Amino acid sequence: MKNFFWIVVLFIFPFENISQNLLWQGYFSYNEVRDLSESENRLFAACETALFSKNRSTNEINTVNTVDGLSGETISTVYHSQQYNRTFVGHNNGLLIMINEATEEITLLVGIRDQAGGIPPNKKKINHIYEYNDKLYISTDFALVEFKLTDFTFGDTFYISPTGAQAEVLETTVLNEEIYAVTLNHGIRQAPLSNPNLVNFNAWQTFYGDFWKGIVTFNNQLVAINSNNILYRFNGTNPIAILNVGQPFVDLRSRGDKLVATTSSRVVVMNESFAQIVTVQSSSIPDLTLTFTSGTIIGDSIYIGTFENGVIETTITNPSLFEVLLPQGPNKNNIFSITITPSGTLWATFGDYSQFNNPYPLDEFGISKLSQEEWLNIPYEELLEAKSIVRVTVDPTNENIVYASSYFSGLLKLEDDVATTIYNTTNSGLQSLVIPGNPTYGPDIRVEQTAFDKEGNLWVSNGLIANMLKVFRANGQWQSYDVSDVLGGFTSNSRMSVDKNNTKWLCTLDEGLLAFNENFGNRLIKITEGQNEGNLPSSAVQCAVVDNRNQLWIGTRRGLRVLPSVDRFLNEEELTTNSIIILDEGLAQELLFGQFITDIAVDGANNKWIGTADAGVFQFSPNGQQTLQRFTSANSPLPSNVINDIEINGTTGEVFIATSKGMVSFKGTSTKPNDNLKDVYVYPNPVRPGFEGTVKISGLTSKANVKVTDIEGNLVYEEISEGGTIEWDTTAFGKYKVASGVYMIFISTDDALDTTVKKVMIVR
Model pTM? Predict the structure, then answer.
């Protein structure tokens, strides 16, 4: 009985509405190249969660990410079939993606990922893809899987261990109609392709024992990498050593009459006589510290994938001249936090800490800045040795001055993108944490969030000390405030915000939410768990955000609470928060009950965007009673449901969502309201045939009245704006699509003192 592979070929077009794709944009890192593949004229580079390619004729570099249809899962390998003009992308979870390069159609092939039979999810990684006679042989962590290129369906699964059990297959090749597979623990296994019963493990024999890591066919013989870091060729069944570089090989390629062997610091190109014709050392590439991951050749060009800087290109004839192939993007995909300035500049940080606020191991990932569609990546070496940078605060009076919080080194000041000062225990009021019984520990200065008040003072959250609230005053003086009276002990700090009354709201790991205002007798109130202690669902508070109506929205690790008004702090001794109760199919439910909330952002219409630790992003109405949208990796270009941070560009309405596997943005409509109507604009205009999106009317004042009529004056739409933008779905009050023609848009402020008229043309 044949051991059939569970065939599941699922064609997924997650974004069927083309207009929806236009609402999304991806901001991915292409630094970390996992694998390379090639055709005669194109190079394909697989990065952590995205791809890029170079057209050698035009030198054009194209990128593919989740906005285009990729999954956001971690990529393990890539293979391009020149005969079928398809690119295949393998993932750690077994997902196989096929890209039709002619049509750009992306197909998700889930047969390996969803394979039954008791295979654990962490044992489905795709390690290598090899093409032979209209088939792909896919090496996975549990078996060798066949994929038929003639009809793009999975074939059989070959369990090739000596007992027929699962075996980790690393790489395959074919020589003289014999297939050879390198396994992790069972040596090199061999079988004749003419055998019609390859699914029977007895059809496979051990070609050579020992421990091997890779194998290719080159110059009509087998060449393999051994775990002893030596490259061998086989004369029959006898291995003959041909190269020993003294370090592990990470990649081996046979490309025409050239053999390419790669280690983490060296690429060696050999001819058919196994003579070394080119050796490229990572140390020979100027101004870069590189770790090689893969290497290949197209014509005279050598391409080297790196872990830090994309792809390095050089040539066989001039291997001392280098070019870096690296699309624009941030330093890393796992962005910990983002900050957007009033002008729209975005800052991204990558330092992080565990759920227990532990920053170790300390990160040295630098900072990234996106301005006018250009990325600037500032490396750790230029940041005065500030480690684990977790957040950026921009000076409200001068965007060229920013403060970066380090969860180990203190507070870093940058001016015009250059680090100028590191504030620590030697030159500021910042303090190192104290470990009882270990007085010599440190310095370890845990600065998380900083925030400016209305007077231009910079408030600093300095964790695990008694005087955890600091202020760096506009006059250059530091001052500390002791908040230990309301604490059970020293606590780790998290985010902080300052409201219109200059009240500081400090989130903590295990002491709830602290509120402090020095202008009211240093009043200090703690809100935590318990009906009489503040009614929070958890004492681990992740974020506290003031909305446009001065309500405080509080996200914890076990749910959501709202303080009806921040003004209550000024005249009440105890503060109690409320849950939001909604009706779900007629039953009263608490909104986001038990959810681990990672961030809350408020848009121009006072809608709430709430990120979670594993459930994606929710957009709620201003009072939380309506779920306006929910985005997950299954129904949107979100690369992950693990949301680290959310920030909104108030001018454009663009919602930036930082996840554990990359950042995307959603071009929302909830912009901040304008002061007048002089900048109102309508887009798209004209609306062309086939367009399925909505018409946006932006630049509005708050509560502006918007009426849309046909050319004869018949009203087809009317709405009062909440923020600076509204959407019209081009229907007559939702009943039917309006006909082709010119439509008038009459806009007036809520007091009718300012008016304007716009036009939009619709072509069906």
Answer: 0.88
In the three-class reduction of DSSP (H, G, I as helix; E, B as strand; rest coil), residue 149 is classed as coil
CATH number for the domain that contains residue 725: 2.60.40.3110
CATH code of 48's domain: 2.40.10.480
Residue 532: φ, ψ to 5°? -100, 5
pLDDT tens for each residue of 574-630:
999 999 999 887 889 999 999 999 999 999 889 999 999 999 999 999 999 999 999
Is 598 in contact with 644 (CB distance < 8 Å)? Answer: yes
User: Is residue 502 one of the residues assigned to a domain?
Assistant: no
Q: Are strands 681-683 and 662-667 parallel, antiparallel or unpaired?
A: unpaired
User: Residue 238 pLDDT more than 80?
Assistant: yes
Residues written for the chain: 764
One-letter amino acid for residue 68 of the chain: D
Contact 407, 447 (CB under 8 A): yes
Nearest partner of 463 among 447, 479, 451, 449, judged by Cα: 447
d(CA 523, CA 573): 9
CA gap 312, 289 in Å, rounded: 12
Per the structure, the count of domains in the chain is 2
Sign of CA dihedral 491, 497, 501, 502: positive
Residue 720 belongs to a domain: yes
- Which CA distances in Å does 538 have to 93, 600, 648? 33, 16, 27
Q: How far is CA 149 from the centre of its chain?
A: 32
Q: Are 456 and 467 in contact (CB under 8 A)?
A: no
Q: What is the mean pLDDT of residues 97-109?
A: 96
* CA pair distance 190, 203, nearest whole angstrom: 8
- Long-range interactions of 82-88: CB distance < 8 A, separation 24+: 82/39, 82/40, 83/131, 83/149, 84/149, 86/149, 87/37, 87/44, 87/51, 88/129, 88/136
Q: Considering 110, 141, 168, which residue would you say is the last residue of a domain?
A: 110
3-state secondary structure 460-493: EEECCCCCCEEEECCCCCEEEECCHHHCCCCCCE
* In the chain, % of residues over pLDDT 90: 85
Q: Is 171 in contact with 139 (CB distance < 8 Å)?
A: yes
Is residue 14 within 8 Å of 24, Cβ to Cβ? Answer: no
CA–CA separation, 727 and 694 (whole Å)? 6
Q: Tell me whether residue 441 is in a domain.
A: no
> Would you say 347 and 675 are in contact if contact means Cβ atoms under 8 Å apart?
no
Structural domain harbouring 747: 681-762
Alpha carbons 140 and 130: distance in angstroms, whole number: 12
Using DSSP's 3-state secondary structure scheme, residue 382 falls into: helix
Q: What is the pLDDT of residue 22?
A: 66
Query: What is residue 60's three-state secondary structure?
Result: coil
Proportion of the chain above pLDDT 70, given as a percent: 97
